[in-house]
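Case 312 in the screening queue. Each case pairs one protein sequence with one candidate compound; here the compound is adenosine-5-diphosphoribose. For every case the pipeline is the same: read the inputs, emit a complex structure as tokens, and attach any notable structural observations.

Predict complex for case 312.
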Amino acid sequence: MGSRKKIALIGAGQIGGTMALLCGQRNLGDVVLVDIMEGVAKGKALDLQQTRGVLGFDVDVTGGGTGDYGLIRGADVCIVTAGVPRKPGMSRDDLLKVNLEAITKVAHGIRQHAPNAFVIVVTNPLDSMVYAMYRITGFPKNRVVGMAGVLDTARFQHFVAEAAGCSPQDVVGTVLGGHGDDMVPLVRHCSVSGVPLRQVLDQAKIDAIVERTRKGGGEIVALLGTGSAFYAPAAAAVAMAESYLRDQKRTFPCSALLDGPYGVKGLFVGVPVVIGAGGVERIVELELDDAERAMLTRSVESVRRSVAETKL
Ligand code: APR
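Case 312 output:
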């Protein structure tokens, strides 16, 4: 056995394929793409193998069907996008029934073949799908996490950068709560290289950015006509995997199991966490004012309703 890490991407669709390219380019580890559409997984893997000479990376990219979840055996990280994306006019919660079926199968496969993996769930509705993954795998809470906040924050960063005429890399911000239209972009905690956002943009512009961030996924669904956003979701999930694999201990907003922080118990909700070799190593509890707390409470209630529908 070599010392390379193994990354299983379960779901080889738009996000899965993009993640495979990003993992390869960053030489994060050997990648295996798995999909119910075996040919898609195999074809994308072969295509990606053929980028290696041009792009200059040497990790392996292979692919196969879900008939053999054994392909993920021994994976260090599993990133799950299995399921269907939204169509125009749908909410993320409209996907629950069909995607719960996919997550259930995938969770059994992971439990059997990759029992030590760090699992990142991307499939929507995110906060209830990551909850289902946690319940079905029975993995400890530090090894199951949902990707949402990194993406929502990246959208917020982009909109602020565009309005302020600055680099998105200098926009520091975070988004709390569920991955739905009532997520909570934390304006008070946002700055451009340390300069508070409220000194950079006027309130009307900030309000418009908050609203656009909340509906950021839907805006792209409407434009694409088929499918949902995939470049930024893929980049966000790979950043989380990299922090785990390289023990970077980056602080990211992620959907993590709360058992007390923010006054929430037994739900996966987006909060800042530290991701390192220990998985979700720590939950960071920000001080919230009354308005922020009220928004978070509303968002948590939406998550609670979605989780109840899973009947898990
Ligand atoms: N096991 C493996 N793969 C599956 C399974 C399963 N049980 N069920 C579905 N798939 C595959 C589909 O065949 C498809 O190739 O998952 C892939 C999903 O890819 P896309 O349809 O291209 O969707 P994508 O844009 O990648 O989004 C995936 O992430 O952000 C969320 O809302 C989005 O829930 C959606 C998911």
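Case 312 observations:
- Residues 10-16, 34-37, 40, 66, 81-86, 95, 99, 102, 105-106, 122-124, 227-228, 230, 233 surround adenosine-5-diphosphoribose (CB under 6 Å).
- The CA atoms of residues 52 and 58 lie 6 Å apart.
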